[in-house]
Amino acid sequence: MMLIDADKLIEEIDEEIEYGTERIEKHFDDADKYITKGLRIARKDILAQPTIDAAPIKHGRWIRVIAEDYECSECKAAVWSGKANPISNYKYCWRCGAKMEE
Predict the structure, then answer these.
(1) pTM of the predicted model, to two decimals?
(2) Which tens digits make up the pLDDT trace of 55-100?
């Protein structure tokens, strides 16, 4: 799934519709008429789509507490790391979901 700024897209489509409408009024060009009609349909379809609540990504890092024990910089959740299970294997915090930066 690709998240986009639909408001910005609608804004750009509205600008193109306005431009096409001006060209139709000045030249009555069939191509502009059909392009503008297509843009109006696309605009309507975009506005009809369901929306989702996208949460911002929380970023954190693992902080070494002692020896092989680490904690999340965001929520202080503890993680044990060893040779067979290095801290680099933990890409996200198991508790708060923070994405761990290198």
Answers:
(1) 0.48
(2) 788 999 999 999 889 999 999 999 998 888 899 999 999 999 999 9
Give the separation between CA 100 and CA 62, rounded to whole angstroms: 7
* Side-chain-side CA neighbours of residue 36 (13 Å): 16
Give Cα 10 distance to the centre of its chain: 17
Helices (H), 1-102: 6-27, 30-48
pLDDT at 1: 63
DSSP 79: E
Strand partners, 63: 71
Q: Are 71 and 60 in contact (CB under 8 A)?
A: no
Question: What is the DSSP pairing of strand 69-72 with strand 99-100?
Answer: unpaired
